[in-house]
Amino acid sequence: MSQKTLSLLAKIIIILFAILGIAFYGIAVPFGGRELLVGAPELQYCYLPWLIFMELMVIPDYLVLGFAWKIADSINRDRAFSRENGKRFKWISVISLITTVYFFIGNTVLFLLNMNHPAVYIVSFVLVFIGASISAASAILSYLSRKAAVLQEESDLTI
Length: 159
Fold this sequence. Notes:
Layout: H1 3-39, H2 44-55, H3 58-76, H4 83-112, H5 118-158
Helix pairs in contact: 1-2, 1-3, 3-4, 4-5
């Protein structure tokens, strides 16, 4: 597969994630929450805290998509293993870790305030694991990208 094809596929996936994010954060969270209240109006006190908690994750999620877009663009320009991408992967790792910790703490606080169902709380650990995995994978890619950039620079000096 060519670098242009890989870059295009990555950008298509990023666009799809952005669209899914709009659907999730813009439609599913606010309207889905309201719809849940129709069947359980006694949970009205949970709606606003959960809405704020969930919507605050929009910014870091789209920051990650922005860094991913820049990485995909650099792949298209044959700069996949560069110091810049190493920094971008590092930022993705940090943002993912912060968002994962925020999600875990927020979910725990809402659980302790009796605003979260125990089953939802337990299942959310899967999302915490996924977030931590994304953070770790990004940190590894950051390291490898920076190491490959150094090797490339050394190779360029010997030519």
